Amino acid sequence: VLITFPFSIWMCLKIVKEYERAVVFRLGRIVSKKAKGPGLIMVLPCTDVFARVDLRTVTSNIPLQEILTKDSVTTQVDGVVYYKIHSAVCSVANVTDVHLATNLLAQTTLRNVLGTQSLSQILSGREEIAHNIQSILDNATGKWGIQVARVEIKDVRIPMEMQRAMAAEAEATRDARAQIIAAEGERNASEALKQASMVLVEAPSALQLRYLQTLTTLATEKNSTIVFPLPMNMLDNHKPEH
Fold first, then answer.
1. The pLDDT value given to residue 225
2. How far does Cα 71 stand from its chain's mean position?
3. Can you give 162-212 as a three-state secondary structure string?
4. What is the pLDDT of residue 169?
5. Residue of higher predicted confidence among 109 and 198
6. Nearest to residue 41, comparing CAs of 16, 5, 10?
7. 77-108 pLDDT, tens digit each
8. pTM of the entire structure?
9. Closest among 152, 118, 119 to 134, alpha carbons compared
10. pLDDT at 33
């Protein structure tokens, strides 16, 4: 460096961007046990080797995984993991390829966690399952200098036969609920009719008023035929004598 100065200075100076850190190895050892940057750093030729580490959040897709659930249903699930490197030294010194290792671990964790859940739990508890996977990944990748920010389950695919069976089950449940509601309505209507009949028995004139109200309703509908109800007491008064 001294002999070829000032030409060698251009080979010694390196620029590290704001979102990057440089881990410098000098004669095989990490310099100062910490990453350098951002800005301008100096690297000695022949003795120093440095690795750039990107600290930005990485989006890693989990490929479609075929999973056998707890209730013996075969499903296909994929997802996405958001993580970033918080320790550049650990990500370089403790693992060969930190991104590949994180992705493979995410695939394995997804299969292991979903294998302990039933299909209904997977469909209804995605957020809780994703939070559990995130916690497991964060604990496992901490020694690699990784911080897992978020895990999302994107899609859950089930066989077509299972979809038809679930649709039939849902339709049967809706029909049963509709019948229960109809029966409840009939019961309430019968109780209302019972109370109305008791009122009419106590006040016979109320029945005549009900007749008149019915006639008024029929007249407003512009019907050509009007039905006059015949009081039952008239029939009782004209019964033939034997």
1. 64
2. 20
3. HHHHHHHHHHHHHHHHHHHHHHHHHHHHHHHHHHHHHHHHHCCHHHHHHHH
4. 78
5. 109
6. 16
7. 999 999 999 999 999 999 999 999 999 999 99
8. 0.67
9. 152
10. 84
Residues, the chain:
242
> 63: which residues sit within 8 A by CB, 6+ positions away?
78, 107
pLDDT digits (tens, 9 = 90+) for 16-63: 999 999 999 999 899 888 899 898 888 888 888 999 999 999 999 999
Residues 6+ apart with CB under 8 A from 228: 215
Q: Could you tell me whether strands 146-157 and 13-16 are parallel, antiparallel, or unpaired per DSSP bridges? A: unpaired
Question: Do strands 20-26 and 13-16 pair parallel, antiparallel, or not at all (unpaired)?
Answer: unpaired
Report the half-sphere exposure of 152 (CA within 13 A, side-chain side): 9
How distant is the alpha carbon of residue 33 from its chain centre?
42
Retrieve residue 29's tokens.
Answer: 């050892």
The 10 Å CB-count burial string (b at 16+, else e) for 86-100 is: ebbbbbbeebeebee
Residue type, 13: L
